[in-house]
Design goal:
This protein is α/β, with parallel strands linked by helices. Helices cover 31% and strands 31% of the residues. It has 2 domains: 3-106, 2-Layer Sandwich (Alpha-Beta Plaits), CATH 3.30.70; 154-306, Vaccinia Virus protein VP39 (Rossmann fold), CATH 3.40.50.150. It has helices spanning 15-25, 38-46, 53-56, 75-88, 105-108, 154-166, 182-189, 202-214, 246-252, 276-286, and strands at 3-11, 30-34, 62-69, 94-100, 116-118, 122-126, 138-142, 172-176, 194-199, 222-226, 237-243, 260-272, 288-296, 299-306. Strand 9 (194-199), helix 8 (202-214) and strand 10 (222-226) form a beta-alpha-beta unit. It is globular, with a radius of gyration of 22 Å. The termini are far apart.
Amino acid sequence: MDFTEIILTVDIRYADAASDIAVMAARGGIYVEDYSHLEQEAHDIAHIDLIDEDLLQKDRSVVRIHIYVSPQDSPAETSAYLRERLSASHIPFDMDEKLCRNEDWENNWKAYFHPMPMGEKLYIHPVWVKDYDPGERTVLHIEPGVSFGTGTHETTRLCLSAIERHLAPGGTFLDVGCGSGILSVAALLLGAAHAEAVDIDPLAVKMARLNGELNHFTAPQYTVLEGNLTDKIHGTFDIVAANIVADAILILSRDIRQFLKPGGLYITSGIIDLREPEILEAFDRLGFRVLERYEEGGWLCFVTQAE
């Protein structure tokens, strides 16, 4: 299977603290590149005194932490988690990402994404799986693509569960930063009369439209727009959901009230627990009352209402 490789470079003084944070995020594996005690370790471990010149030229003042993330573990969320944790711990860092690709990348990851129940009513079905048994659950057919939401990550599960609890039949729904469109398609399957989705990424827009079609939802019942958060949206909705990172939610929350019907709900997820005080302060300042708070694996989801 192929992975996204995230490479953190930190000063040697922060090696242990940064490694501890990386271990919390690294479901697929971790490798710490540390040359600070090269000669001693070569002698103690390999029992040699002759060391390759290239190794001797390595920078001893930093460590590089390599974290390997599988597609179903959501590389984007892992990157956000690392950035938030390292920043909160006041650890200076550089971050690079690259794809560990082979010729079968487009299909290999699919073997690790299986049908699964979600919440109380839904059943997530990847379209390439032929044999599945949803029982009495409503099936959500999905082609997530390698970069977008499959429903397996904590942030998506929390958001889907909140939507299931609060969406009234015949309601209207807006998904900001829609990715694969899984939230908006789920809303329609759960009884929404109309759903809109928006994303700045044209590939996400394409995937969201495809997933709507896979579940027999097209315009005008299901509309997917390309744009920067709310610049393409008009009208008001019973529920607005945003499963994105904390910084984007802070920006979005300044303007989201105009898209909510009276008594409408604003559901946010993708928030790492370290950012909770900042998010709550913004909700309070902008006039949003927190009705419910959910947490899983260090990620938070809030159900709020404009006062």
